[in-house]
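Notebook B, p. 112. Complex prediction, attempt 2.
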Amino acid sequence: MAAIDMKVKERPERRLTEMQEGKTPKIEVRDFDFYYSQNQVLHKVTLDVPEKEVTALIGPSGCGKSTFLRSLNRMNDTIAGTRVEGTVTIDGVEIYQPGVDVVALRRRVGMVFQKSNPFPKSVYENVAYGLRIGGIRDRSVLDEVVERSLQRAALWEEVRDRLNTSALSLSGGQQQRLCIARALAVDPEILLMDEPASALDPIATQKIEELIYQLKDNYTIVIVTHNMQQAARVSDRTAFFMLGKLVEVGDTNTMFMTPKEKLTEDYITGRFG
Amino acid sequence: MRHFDKDIDTLKDQLLRMGAMVEDAISQSIRALLERDTGIAEAVIAADNQIDRMELEIDQFTIELIAKMQPTAVDLRFVATMMKVTPELERIADLAQDVCERAIELNREPQLKPLIDIPRLARISQEMVRHALDAFVKRDANLARAVIARDDEVDLLTEQSFRELLTYMLEDSRNISRAIRLTFVGKYFERIADGATNICEMVVFLVEGKVIKHAGITGSEE
């Protein structure tokens, strides 16, 4: 009668390993407000960006996510009439305090824009540009950095034989990867990406996404994207902004499967309006 | 209304139609057993194909929906729930079919004993399936939890019926084949109730995003 054992099976007591604790924050943002003149576009944003992870910023147009991104390397300083309150700390150093060398900051915190913007120079000179203005003249150093940066940007194989042709002759996807190589050449720690693939076709987009996946081994990445599936695919953490406020931030799996806030749920399932 | 909501409604309708067929299979299997009606049992067995076909249709539709809409959050949980509930229903229908097969065999011999625990067990299991489907359609996590709570009652009745049948077997070896068949029937209804419980666990996941099954390893309190 062993075949028909009517006893209810005991439930095992084993527990799954606890969720891995968050990594060390590379960037800590606390109570961050941002104003364009009288107009406040960010309200008390508090967010940690973990080191060597991809953090995606999502939200409807005008929610402040790009402004927030640009605040992380003080790119907004170039716009007249802007003002900030609160703090942005990178590796424990507050970047808005007086005396911070903004050029050095932007070297550590590189940026890639929506529209690829190579200089009207050769492929080689585009990548070498940051080093040259940094005073490096040694050809062998430049050669080495150009090759390494192009390799890291997954572009080397495609351009190694035409380093001296104009960057403008590359395809849109290649130009975008060239801009990433240019950002990598000055050896940043953080990469900010503002919709880096929104102007690209699906194949070029996939290459950029693969690249982001590889880059996070060495860099901390913050990416703004309108493409929700892209955020889901490439990021470890997702932050949802609306009307200048951070509504919810969390592990990407959780954000896309069981978000806590109704607003987040409505936004990512397209129930807005 | 989003286009996706219409697709969700279509899926829900399909699942409800399948659910109605499965409920019918259960209630007919109970009749076949209690009324010793081989004709009814054969009809249930013959109708199972239709339920299998519905399962395939729902599967197809669900996969197409994932491909086209790439659902997230509650939509994703709905689609995931559909993909788990449908095969659960199909298995429940198979179990009703198994009950009918045993009923046909039992009908070839005189009745062993008046049935008491098994009909109770059968009714509870049937109700649990109906309420599980209600909970799913209404996205009612409380109802789902109430259904899950009844599973212990079912386990108890299954055990009780088995112990009684064991005494018949010990008493007279000529009883053994019928008693074993009835034991099987009890086990089938118990597994139907398990199916309803599984559906309800998915309903809680759908509504609250919480995983409550395998409490031992997921750390769930339930």
